[in-house]
Amino acid sequence: TAIFQQLVNKNKHNALLILNLHLYLIFGIRALHLQHDHLSNQGFYKNLYISLQSQH
Predict the structure, then answer these.
(1) HSE, side-chain direction, 13 A CA sphere, residue 50
(2) For residue 46, what are the CA distances in angstroms to 2, 27, 31, 33, 53?
(3) Sign of the CA dihedral running 29, 31, 37, 40
(4) d(CA 15, CA 21)
(5) What is the spatial distance between Cα 37 and Cα 44, in angstroms, rounded to a whole number?
(6) Is 25 buried (19+), middle (13-18) or exposed (0-12) by CB count in 10 A?
(7) Distance between CA atoms of 9 and 16, rounded to whole angstroms?
(8) What is the DSSP letter of 56?
(9) What is the rounded average pLDDT of the residues 36-43?
(10) How confident is residue 38, by pLDDT bands cut at 50, 70 and 90?
């Protein structure tokens, strides 16, 4: 039973490691996506501000 217990503990550890890696990737990709959107919005508003100033 000691060997079986070690296998169970090792599988639990591997499952947690995979879950942790999965969450890390999801949040990393989400952060990159949000950062990309923020940079796109900055460029849009900067161009909008410049075009509005040139109209006056």
Answers:
(1) 6
(2) 66, 28, 22, 20, 11
(3) negative
(4) 10
(5) 10
(6) exposed
(7) 11
(8) -
(9) 57
(10) low
Q: Token digits for 19?
A: 């879950």
The helix (H) or strand (E) run that includes residue 46 is: helix 2-55
Amino acid code (one letter) for 46: K
Element (H, E) at 33: helix 2-55
Distance in Å from the first CA to the final CA of the chain:
83
Q: Give how far Cα 1 sits from Cα of 4, 5, 11, 12, Å.
A: 5, 6, 15, 16
Q: What is the pTM of this model?
A: 0.37
Amino acid identity of residue 2, one-letter, is: A
Total count of residues recorded for the chain: 56
